[in-house]
């Protein structure tokens, strides 16, 4: 299975939580953090289940999510 | 014809031809009497010069098409008559706020409301004291067919020079009469001036904006001060007027613009005692206050004549401190005075 | 291990945060327009016209040329820009108050003339910027700040279906209604807008994409709940899909 991770730009996140509703592997959740605009932001749980499907990023209204595919280099 | 540049032409056509000569390549208009010759002429001429002619579906659309053409950097014009200009006021204010050049011709007719289609000067207020917000238009008032051509031609350079809408304020009479005029057929001074601010696609640069919405605290106030500085510069540089038959012996001074100034020249010719002179503001904004004050200093009386019930009169009163010297005669609702009528009024009041 | 970036904020967006409320459909549509501009390499030839309404600030967020327009006059401004610069890509971006109410004459005549522009129409069933008043697109029985008892047809008339209204006009070439409530619908919306832009580049003519868009703040709903309302209720009044496509 493809491995991935996301990076959340906390300054752009507005805590709409649409990404949470879109993530099939429950890798995103509400955080306890508030950004400089006073918005509760989401965080990436990093449970190793993220498959870089990008659904969270595509649905994010504020372009606050970057998605990376993790490629394991074979020796 | 001895001279190819002379032409016997109707006032409204002179406006259209002047715009073409001035490099106007975008025209939008909506039918309204007494200016219909202009869109009709433009519908034929614009395709000949690879310009855009658009018959707008309302005056609101006309002015916003001109707004858009100006955004894209084109020389653009619309024409209408009084009720149509009322509809355009929104767009004109946006153009002034966005500092967009453009030419608006108002061939005035009688009002208020639908009024009638006779010539009138009752839009003086809506030309020099226009719509919402603290802004000004440069307003040029021709009084013969040659000036219909000349002022429309020059309006485009003025609009580009100051990035401000310019209004040519004329009326149904000047629009309809035919006179022989000299066409310029020369390139306008600022035609090829690069408009760095125009939106043409952000080639090799960041995106640009054309906006009048300024919500940051203090930004709109600053913008208004900037506009005011521009209007002050216009006041300093662009004032125009004509002094006709004014000598050291002038006892009575007529102040009139446009058609009434022309009629007043007839009045002066009828005056056997040669005591009457005419001061004719050509730019209604900027109004030549100081120049009028100077001319009026030594006269016994000042006669303000208008085809309305006293609109420019306010500006004459600002110019002349001793308003007891002022007499006003006006014809509203499409009435046009004769030279004799004006002379009789003068003779009765002196 | 190597990390390969596969999704990021499009270059045609500036670093200024959207001024929209959390979950607002405007944000998503702004983002996908910027993505298309990047993908089709349009940044240096596109000119947008922003409306009066919440999206009045659109020009702060896109790093390409954007003009303001008076309320509802957006299509007229876009028309003139396109007529003056026919080789540029010109779009107007409008809300439902702007397009379907005060600008009804402008949109109908622009469509009827078959102007070769693309219109992005955001339908969120209310006037967002001014605090959630009734719009021409407000649903029957929907409560707004100026229909506190719910929209009743006798007093307020019926929700206007703009695409169906424009469809019979011969100048109109492509009309599609989309939504942006989940990743799948966002992709569909993006494809529709891309198609509108592509048609314009092929000189096919007037196209309009209506986006059913949430307004969580004025609907008094959480963003995810607001999207559910679109998925379950609003699509019944404004059916999704192609209304017209001449190709």
Q: How is this structure best described in words?
A:
Chain A has 75 residues and is of the alpha+beta class. Chain A has helices at residues 18-22, 55-59, and strands at residues 3-8, 28-34, 40-44, 65-71. Chain A contains two helices and four strands, in the order E-H-E-E-H-E. By secondary structure, chain C is of the alpha/beta class. In chain C, helix 4 packs across helix 5 (104-112). In chain C, the strands form two sheets. A seven-stranded mixed β-sheet of chain C has the order 3-2-4-5-9-8-10, with helices on both faces. Chain B binds chain C through residues 25-26, 28, 52, 54, 56-58, 60-61, 64-69, 71-74, 76, 90-91, 94, 98, 199-204, 206-213, and chain C through 14, 43-47, 49, 56-57, 59, 62-70, 73, 76-81, 83-85, 88, 105-106, 109. Strand 4 (65-71) of chain A pairs antiparallel with strand 1 of chain C, so a sheet runs across the interface.
Q: Termini of chain C, distance in Å?
A: 47 Å
Order of helices and strands of chain C: EHEHEHEHHEEEHHEHEHHE
Proportion of beta-strand residues of chain A: 25-35%
Mean pLDDT over the full residue set of chain A: 95
- The tally of beta strands of chain C, per DSSP, is 10
Q: Give the overall average pLDDT of chain C.
A: 97
* CATH superfamily descriptor of chain C: Thiamin diphosphate (ThDP)-binding fold, Pyr/PP domains
Major beta sheet summary of chain A? 2 strands, antiparallel
The domain tally of chain A reads 1
User: How does CATH name the architecture of chain A?
Assistant: 2-Layer Sandwich
Q: What structural class do the secondary elements of chain C suggest?
A: alpha/beta
Which CATH top level class of chain C fits?
Answer: Alpha Beta
The geometry of chain C reads as globular
Index terms:
heterotrimer; A: about 80 residues; alpha+beta; Alpha-Beta Plaits; two-stranded antiparallel sheet; two-stranded antiparallel ribbon; elongated; B: about 350 residues; alpha/beta; Rossmann fold; 2 domains; five-stranded mixed beta sheet; 12 helices; 15 strands; about 20% strand; globular
